[in-house]
Amino acid sequence: MITKYSNQKEQVKEDEIAQAAKEIQNGNLVIFPTETVYGIGANALDEVAVKKIFEAKGRAQDNPLIVHVASIEMVEKLVEKIGTVEQKLMEKFWPGPLTIIMKRKSKKVVPNVTTANLDTVGIRMPSNQIAQKLIEKAGLPIAAPSANISGKPSGTKIEDIIEEFNGKVSYILDGGITDIGLESTVIKVEDDKINILRPGKITKEQLEEVAKQVEIDKHVLGQISQDEIVASPGMKYRHYAPNTKCIMIYSQSEQKMIDKINEITNELQKEGKKILVLGRKKHINSYITPTKWNMGDTLEEVAKNIFTLLRKVDKENVDLVLIEGVGEQGLGLAITNRLIRACAYHYMIV
Ligand code: TXA
Ligand code: MG
């Protein structure tokens, strides 16, 4: 298959989006930017088209896809009803990085492949202009997981995406590096309580402005065994992980964290091992290893950089990667959720 490409970055033209929208209508795959990460999309209502996404990504069949919409009318066609809390969430956070799981219409307008046979469907309205126009021009809801081979960090940069998907999709719309860098917050409302199934840019603190009770699913920071039944199937899969062994190290005391990282580095260097440290910019000069990468200073910067850095790890040929933890406040929860998976649950709190 020959993949067609748009112009670069913000210069994507209307007619290019229209061509990509045609591909969606014809049952083909299109990679497009959203404000979180890139998506690999197909007509959410077309079973055959959606199956192509699973094939291209090597994604497990029991992991449901998020359906992207451009209007509330589109949502109404897909779900049984929109509850009051959901309504408030849409008003406050849409368009934007929040996915809401709702009961799907019993007539199964959304096919089983899209929802992995669940009686619910995850829906979000992206704020990225290219994504919105693509959905509008196609006139269809678009099912789209993150644009990455399953298990790899989500695609936030076009170069990484081309490496994995050239020749496997019909069109790639280049929107530059994605704004947020981490996938959307995924939530489900039950009895007026909001459950966070995957943390993201919309934080627990922000959700508390809409509902009195907001809970973080225990699997967000906890480990999951393969046979466990989880609220969001995506949580149980290996994710974001480089092949090189990684350990996340966190302490509320920045000095303690730096000291621990240096202590481990020192011991392993004595054995001739090569250590890579991923640290906040303000700490980077404190690390004794010669190989160290700057993750940025603010949580927003770390979120934006982290997947690109994780993708480069295996090319560096080191024995171990030590990654600074960032805590669980605000956007920190989403970053920590991705980091402990990247580290295959190897982490230390000191
Ligand atoms: O920011 C994002 O959400 C990006 C962009 C492209 O929109 N998409 C994304 O999709 O991250 P994906 O497939 O990589 O992650 C979707 C997550 C998975 O963990 C999946 O299990 C969960 O959402 N999910 C989707 N539908 C669900 C449902 N009906 N019930 C529970 N979890 C669901
Ligand atoms: Mg993904």
Number of domains: 2
| Corresponding CATH architecture of the largest domain | Alpha-Beta Complex
Order of helices and strands: EHEEHEHHEHEHEHEEEHEEHEEHEHE
Find the structural class using helix and strand composition: alpha/beta
Query: Would you count the extended β strands for me?
Result: 16
Which percent band covers the strand fraction? 15-25%
Tell me the radius of gyration.
Answer: 20 Å
Heteromolecules bound: threonylcarbamoyladenylate, magnesium ion
What CATH first level of the largest domain would be assigned? Alpha Beta
Brief summary of the model shown:
The chain contains eleven helices and 16 strands. With about 350 residues, the protein is an alpha/beta fold. The strands form two sheets. An eleven-stranded mixed beta sheet has the order 1-8-2-3-7-4-6-5-9-10-11, sandwiched between helices. A five-stranded parallel beta sheet has the order 14-13-15-12-16, sandwiched between helices.
